[in-house]
Specification:
The protein is built from five helices and no strands. It is an all-alpha fold. The chain is rod-shaped and about 65 Å long.
């Protein structure tokens, strides 16, 4: 792998972690260093940093908060 590609990956903790979990990317980047952008896209999916994944997490958090408020309402109404 080219030194500049490796240094770039090392400077990005998420990319480095993704590379450690997916060693096939060592080979891909060694053969074609221009596939770095493709690896970054896959790393975002792997780490759940795409927009739809973030929206799902936000919605799940909102649903949990609403459920907790409903439980508190029911508890206060009984007491």
């Amino acid at each position: 792998m080219r030194t500049e590609v490796y240094n770039y990956v090392r400077s990005q903790p998420d990319l480095h972690r993704f590379l450690r979990y997916n060693p096939m990317w060592y080979r891909k980047l060694s053969r074609n260093p221009f596939s770095l952008k493709e690896m970054e896209k896959e790393a975002k999916i792997f780490h759940g940093k795409t927009f739809p994944q973030r929206m799902d997490r936000l919605q799940n958090s909102m649903n949990m908060a609403v459920m907790m408020l409903e439980m508190m309402k029911q508890f206060n109404n009984k007491g």
